[in-house]
Amino acid sequence: MPTSRLEAFSDGVLAIIITIMVLELRPPEGPSLEDLGDVSTGFLTYLLSFVYIGIYWSNHHHMFQLVHRVNGAVLWANLNLLFWLSLYPFTTAWMDETGLARTPVVVYGVNLLAAGAAYYVLELTILRAEGEDGVLREALGRDLKAKASIAIYLLGIALALWFAEWAAIVCYAAVAAMWLVPDRRMESFVAEHGTGV
User: Fold this and answer.
1) In terms of Cα–Cα distance, which of 89, 19, 81 is closest to 49?
2) Under 8 Å between Cβ of 106 and 157
3) Half-sphere exposure for 137 (CA within 13 Å, toward CB)
4) 71: three-class secondary structure by DSSP
5) Cβ neighbours of residue 19 under 8 Å, at least 6 residues apart?
6) How far, in Å, CA of 24 to CA of 96, rounded?
7) Of all residues in the chain, what percent carry a pLDDT higher than 90?
8) Rounded CA separation 92/70 (Å)
9) Measuring CA to CA, which residue among 93, 103, 123 is closest to residue 24?
């Protein structure tokens, strides 16, 4: 079956997730710039989660430009990814409302880890559906960024548990920064082999 319905559904879910997150933002109680300091944590946690959703959307889009067929397993793997991403508004709001307390920061890290693992499972499911001749297999290569991300998420969770919450946030932000750099190899594969959708 073609990928267009899966892509359209995923785009809609990701748009709703961003909308829910922005609705969780609270304006400052006062009219001065100093009052913005009271809501800075909420804005920064929103920004981090927004960047993550944007990264997933961009990578999902690029990946499906190289996918020519999907099956039921791919649909369910995609739903698994969307499930973990749909928890971002909850874990983001919990982190913000507790002032970056230990447990919410750990849970946020577990949410990031679960979404990353779900994306990896989606890749593997697509590779199985596409077979040995799929272009995506060659485009992904060894996928070192994905493996490094998992390690950094685990480090962040451990730091939140046994050291300091801010160190975990630095790890989570570092993974986001790592993925903000466009993967030129993937883009060149999309330009050469993509569907052009």
Assistant:
1) 89
2) yes
3) 10
4) coil
5) none
6) 10
7) 69
8) 32
9) 93
Q: 10 Å Cβ neighbour count for 111?
A: 22
Distances (CA, A) of 72 to 8, 117, 122, 128, 145: 16, 19, 12, 12, 27
Residue 188 has pLDDT above 80, yes or no: no
The closest of 115, 130, 108 to 55, measured between CA atoms, is 115
| Angstrom distance (rounded) from CA 42 to CA 130 | 42
- Evaluate if residue 197 carries a pLDDT over 60: no
Compute the distance between CA of residue 186 and CA of residue 139 in angstroms, rounded to an integer.
6
Q: In Å, how far are 40, 50, 53 from 28, measured between CA atoms? A: 9, 20, 25
Per-residue CA distances from 181 to 53, 55, 101, 133, 151 (Å)? 15, 10, 30, 28, 18
196 CB neighbour count, 10 Å cutoff: 6
Segments in 2-143 forming alpha helices (H): 4-24, 40-65, 72-86, 88-97, 102-130, 135-140
pLDDT of 89-108, one tens digit each?
999 999 999 999 999 999 99
pLDDT tens digits, one per residue of 113-160: 999 999 999 999 999 998 887 788 888 878 888 899 999 999 999 999
Contact (CB, 8 A) for 63 and 126: yes
The span from the CA of 147 to the CA of 99, in Å, is: 30
What is d(CA 78, CA 82) in angstroms, rounded to the nearest whole number? 6
Give residue for tokens 């099956």: 71
